[in-house]
Design a protein that fits this description.
Keywords: Nucleotidyltransferase, RNA-directed DNA polymerase, Transferase. GO terms for molecular function: RNA-directed DNA polymerase activity. This is Reverse transcriptase domain-containing protein. By secondary structure, this protein is an alpha+beta fold. It is built from 2 helices and 2 strands; from the N terminus they run ββαα. Helix content is about 25%, strand content about 20%. The termini are far apart.
């Protein structure tokens, strides 16, 4: 004997929201602890990320390059 299982599925319409890569939202940047800073993946004020402040210039450049190459996954 198997109990009868009743499942109801709701029909929902797919959302067609644009990615934040193409239309970055306006964000309010807050004060960070002294060991962190903001870096931006687009221009001087779009797609902010938080990185360690004590990275060398080369490390920051390398990190931002990697983040930019994967921004579709994180934006």
């Amino acid at each position: 004997y198997l109990p009868e299982v009743r499942k109801e599925l709701k029909i929902c319409e797919a959302k067609s929201e644009k990615s934040s890569i193409y239309e970055p939202p306006e964000v309010e940047l807050k004060d960070l602890p002294p060991h962190l800073e903001y870096a931006f993946l687009e221009g001087d004020d779009k797609l902010p990320v938080i990185i360690a402040k004590d990275l060398s210039v080369e490390e920051k450049t390398a990190l931002i390059t990697v983040l930019k190459s994967h921004k579709r996954a994180i934006a």
